[in-house]
């Protein structure tokens, strides 16, 4: 099957489709090794993908210097998306 690039609207529709499924966030460690981790995520109205993690995690350490992480949503075929990242860490205490 030939590859067909998805439009931004198709990507957003794919990411927010129900049932909700986890995604896989792929980053690269400082020594060049890959790191992939499952994440639950949300997509806001502007098309930004948000996920939560803990400060000091491998994901956070890898994302800070990296410009292009990769992400894929589980259960939807071989579609992957990639983009730029801006790391914003906010600490909250859940009670």
Could you name the CATH topology?
Pnp Oxidase, Chain A
What's the CATH H-level superfamily name?
Answer: Electron Transport, Fmn-binding Protein, Chain A
- Going across the major beta sheet, what is the strand order? 2-1-5-6
State the end-to-end CA separation. 49 Å
The total of beta strands comes to 6
Pairing-aware structural class of the strands and helices?
A: alpha+beta
Cα Rg: 14 Å
Number of helices: 2
Q: Order of SSEs, N→C?
A: HEEEEHEE
Low-confidence stretches: 77-82, 89-95
- CATH architectural label: Roll
Mean pLDDT: 74
In short:
With 95 residues, the protein is of the alpha+beta class. It has helices at residues 8-16, 58-63, and strands at residues 23-28, 34-39, 41-43, 49-51, 70-73, 81-82. The protein has a single domain, classed as Electron Transport, Fmn-binding Protein, Chain A (Pnp Oxidase, Chain A, Roll), CATH 2.30.110.10.
Describe this structure as you would to a colleague:
This protein is of the alpha+beta class and 95 residues long. The protein has a single domain, classed as Roll (Pnp Oxidase, Chain A), CATH 2.30.110.10. It is built from 2 helices and 6 strands; from the N terminus they run αββββαββ. The strands form 2 sheets. The protein has a 4-stranded antiparallel β-sheet. Strands 3-4 form a two-stranded antiparallel sheet. A hairpin with a 5-residue loop joins strand 1 and strand 2. The chain is globular, with a radius of gyration of 14 Å. The C terminus is likely disordered.
């Amino acid at each position: 099957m030939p590859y067909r690039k998805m439009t931004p609207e198709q990507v957003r529709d794919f990411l927010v489709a129900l049932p909700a499924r986890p995604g896989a966030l792929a980053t690269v460690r400082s020594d060049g090794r890959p790191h992939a981790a499952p994440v639950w995520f949300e997509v806001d109205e502007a098309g930004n993908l948000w996920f939560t993690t803990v400060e000091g995690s491998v994901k956070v350490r890898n994302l800070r210097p990296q410009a292009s992480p990769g992400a894929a949503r589980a259960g939807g075929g071989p579609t992957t998306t990639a983009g730029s990242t801006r790391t914003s860490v906010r600490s909250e205490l859940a009670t």
